[in-house]
Amino acid sequence: MCGLAGLFVSDPSRWGALSDVATAMTAPIQHRGPDDFGVWAKDSAGVALGFRRLAIIDLSKFGHQPMKSASGRFVMVFNGEVYNHRSIRAELVAHGARFQGHSDTEVMLAAFETWGIEHSLSRFVGMFAIAVWDEQRRELTLARDRLGKKPLFIYAEPGFISFGSEIKALQAAPRFDRTLDLQGLTAYLRYLYVPAPRTIFANTIKLLPGHSLTISDPAASLPDCVSYWSLEAVAQAGVSDPFLGSESEAVDQLQALLTDAVQSRMEADVPLGALLSGGIDSSTIVALMQRASDRPVKTFTIGFDVEDHDESKHAAAIAGFLGTDHTALHLSGQDALEVVPRLPEMFDEPLADPSQIPTYLVSRLARESVTVALSGDGGDELFAGYNRYVHGERLIEKAAYWPKPIRRLASTGLTRLGPAAWDRLHDIVAPVLPGSANPRLPGVKMVKMGNMLAAESEGERYRSLMSAWQDPRMLMTEDSRPIELEARGVDADWLPNLLRKMMFADQLSYLPDDLLAKVDRASMAVSLEARVPLLDHRVVEFSWRLPRHYLIRDGGKWILRQVLYRLVRRDLVDRPKVGFTVPIETWLRGPLREWAEDHLAAGRRAEPAILNWKKLQKEWRRFVAGDGSSSSGLWAVVNFAAWQHRWC
Predict the structure, then answer these.
(1) Alpha-carbon distance 359 to 150, whole Å?
(2) CATH number at residue 59
(3) pLDDT the model gives residue 449
(4) Residue 392 pLDDT exceeds 50
């Protein structure tokens, strides 16, 4: 993995030597690439590219970036990996191409010369963010992989465009407007992340996954992005052409796709391993890795001293069965708490997914032994693994038939008690309930159900399940309340059922803007390349062809479990879902309370006054007194206050 940065300006004389600017922009992202540094600039064209390299493939000088194509027409910086570069190389050699090294970067540039940029992007299998200068056409093209595994931020004002792997690189440029995007902030308070293409800053955007942007005039407004791969088109094609084979044939095909995805991601000229939580997704990846390896795969697990948040014993059982070289590190809450003050530096755009903490910790553990690690992210979104898919769909659809007064009465009853009271009630009756009626965090789920019942439409009900604050605009001062962004994808009427609408919405936004952003920042903070085989776009395309009963049967992820049953003893697989997170509510009331209250106080002093701190203080007092219904929302507020103190 690597980090890139650069700029494209209409009046180069205003900014001094552009190579110096690009150098300064790469300094804050050195953690993304500690092995090498490079810069290329052409002042007469107003363009400069900077790069920090984490050397993975072709460690020689022939892997150095920025890299020029053989003819000199294209100059590129590239963050990521193209896993099918060997087969593309063979095609290009047949076309007469010649290569000096064996990096995927050199293959990509040769592809641009042979097929053009847009056609080449559609042929690449991998994860990437690229910036490529076309000397012949005098154009800068920025592009991002299909699922959004690698980030690419763009800042634009008339005559000045900058871009980079992280916002902190853009802030190191001579121009950067720190005006907040209030719609982005409102969305963050609701969903715990800022949905693309917006960012927390008004003049900065995220390039959407599967898109490219070609700029010929930096003085003009940014042109429209072009989609070279569309999740909507994939979903439409999948549901209109469902898989019609037998169950065993479906499992065979998924296993073949996953085997290829895993094996292609095992190429590296540096040590490689895997992050193993013990759940279905990561266990499947590790099992396929071990099948393809002639030596024990290095696996890594973090364990916590809170049983409800600890999967380490399950990971150890999987590792023992597969025979991996397993490393487990058990941490106390205090160990994890030490990460919290680092979050604003690590995540230079607010992100309040608490699993960012264990993701960073397991990445740090793995980096002590390897440079590349495969992870199991994406299985829940592709194969319907979340409880909200399994149970939420039924509840949302049933709620539509309830009279409004009944829904409101039920909503009031469910939300008034609060999670802690529901947890106490659940503890009383749990001994006589069947296992399927003993969910984790029952109080949180009951309050979420109450909020869902208050919503008026199908889309709003699903959005309520995803919301940390049901009405985040009410947390803002009257002068700063924007028109709220709608959730993308939930109201896709062309999809056949609510299950698919929920999954489509999550794959459009929650997956790239929360989960993959979290994995990228947490792993790159310790210079670890994380690869995600389940999100090979060919696996995604196949998943959309699967009828409902291949996903939801005896819970979620039926077909993925069938693949894992072939690789691991069944008794090691069938257990309740735990999730990879931390007890943030307990921490905020306990060891993090002083830290949180300090940042809440600092937020009250911040100018301009955007949030309604009087209302937030009231919510905080309720929370400290034992009402946990706003715990995730307050975690978002505290994180924003800490972020604002660091970056604004």
Answers:
(1) 16
(2) 3.60.20.10
(3) 64
(4) yes
Own/partner long-range contacts of 403-408 (Cβ < 8 Å, ≥24 apart): 407/453, 407/454, 408/453, 408/454
pLDDT tens string 277-328: 999 999 999 999 999 999 999 999 998 776 666 778 899 999 999 999 999 9
Beta carbons within 8 Å of 287's beta carbon, 6+ residues apart = 318, 322, 564, 567, 568
Domains contained in the chain, number: 3
Residue 96: both structure tokens together: 């007469």
Q: How far is CA 58 from CA 126, 269, 472, in A?
A: 17, 7, 48
Q: Are residues 278 and 353 in the same domain?
A: yes
What is the domain range of residue 223? 2-229
Two tokens at 644?
Answer: 């604002």
Q: For residues 192 and 303, state if they share a domain.
A: no
Q: What per-residue confidence (pLDDT) applies to 303? A: 85
Q: What are the Cα distances from residue 426, in Å, to 550, 575, 623?
A: 32, 20, 20
Residues 38 and 136 in one domain: yes
Instruction: Supply the pTM of this predicted model.
Output: 0.93
Q: How far is CA 28 from CA 41, 350, 425, in A?
A: 19, 17, 50
Distance, CA of 516 to CA of 275 (rounded, Å) = 15
Higher pLDDT, 61 or 355: 355
Is 590 found in the same domain as 551?
no
Q: Give the pLDDT of residue 433.
A: 45
Residue 621 in domain: yes
Report yes or no on 515 lying in a domain.
yes
- pLDDT, tens digit, for every residue of 91-124? 999 998 999 888 999 999 999 999 999 999 999 9
Give start and end residues of each alpha helix (H) in 368-497. Answer: 379-383, 387, 393-399, 404-417, 419-429, 442-454, 458-465
Dist CA 487 CA 255 (whole Å): 33
pLDDT digits (tens, 9 = 90+) for 582-635: 888 888 998 889 999 999 998 888 877 899 998 999 999 999 988 877 899 999
Domain boundary among 196, 229, 262: 229
Residue recorded with tokens 């690229």: 130
Domain identity same for 114 and 26: yes
Collapse the DSSP code of 248 into the 3-class scheme (helix H, G, I; strand E, B; otherwise coil) and give the result: helix
* Whether residue 49 is found in the same domain as residue 73: yes
Of 180, 200, 229, the residue that ends a domain is: 229
Is 252 found in the same domain as 223? no
In-domain check, residue 64: yes
Lowest-confidence pick of 213-222, 446-455, 526-535, 540-549? 446-455
- Residue written as token pair 């009630």: 425
| 122 & 52 share domain | yes
Say whether 128 sits in a helix, a strand or coil: strand
